[in-house]
Input
Amino acid sequence: MSETPADRTPSRLRRWMGPRLLAWFDAHRRELPWRRDRDPYRIWVSEVMLQQTQVTTVVPYFERFMSRWPTLADLARAEEQEVLRLWEGLGYYRRARDLLRAAQMLASSFRGAFPSRPEELEGVPGMGDYTRNAVLSQAFDLRLPILEANSQRLLSRLFGREQDPREGAARRWLWNAAEEILPTRRVGDFNQALMELGALVCTVSVPRCLACPLCERCEAYRQGRQDQIPRRNPPQPSTAISEVATVVSRGALVFIVRRPPTGRWASLWEFPRIGVNEPENTQQAAVRAAATAGLSVTVGERLTTVEHGVTRWRITLHAIKADWVSGEFTAGAYVEGRWVSVSQLVGLPVSSPQRRLMSIVSRGYETTS
Output
């Protein structure tokens, strides 16, 4: 008797999937530093870093982070500015702040041990369903499902679900499916295998179906529609924004400011920065940027232009050199201001575009000194 779509429901495929997926994982899993043991703290840090970030990018950050704070208790005692500095370049800095707040909360409530029950992680900053289940299933083999970009794409194709997996009804169906297919043992390995297979084989474009251990029962493969399932809504068009950063000098010192603890790049340092409003030019905007921090300046030449993207914005950042005339830091748009030497810039947590700008400023000072 030939197989029907009813035979490819999550409950029907559970016993069939487990052995095949785990055998594939045992043979093809990548050797990653957070897979060396089942330490829930290490797994947790890796999962937070991996959110919206490639594995190859995360590995060196993870190694440095673990070297500096090898245990949950160590991280709980850390200073936020140092955590942000080591996080610099990973982006989405709220993850780092939530990680620190969560470590402090867990260290206080559980004496430095990572809790092993889902209910004990309720209300912990940054601990959503995926992160909680990923950590607990890998560390303690709890039978908890996971769903992230790679596994939701794989499951959508396996069961022929055409809907955008980010939409409500489709996402709920996939969560239920992810729970139904869980084996009774090696749950953490099974969840990792789903993600690994999605990352290495069932990729967004040009999936390697013949290398997939599940292809014989994959509905998208049967239909020859792997490139259409799941449906991907077109990305939103990006919006161009022009900003100015004012590099204010006072002798051998430059002026930097710290952003407030909420919003984009919260608590990071930068040169005073502001959006350019029509019809003003960049020099006028540079004067206004300095004024938001309480300084009166005379502006000079353009130092450089840095282009970068943040979500759906394409930002052109014009760096304008300026000399201090009068005034001292006034809180408002920023919570702190400092005059520092260029050598001190390297130790402060800043965004990637500001780091590029600070490197250019530092080279300029080295050339003139």
Q: What stands out?
A: The chain has two domains: 5-223, 239-368. The mean pLDDT is 93. Strands lie at 239-250, 253-258, 269-270, 273-275, 296-310, 313-326, 336-340. The radius of gyration is 25 Å.
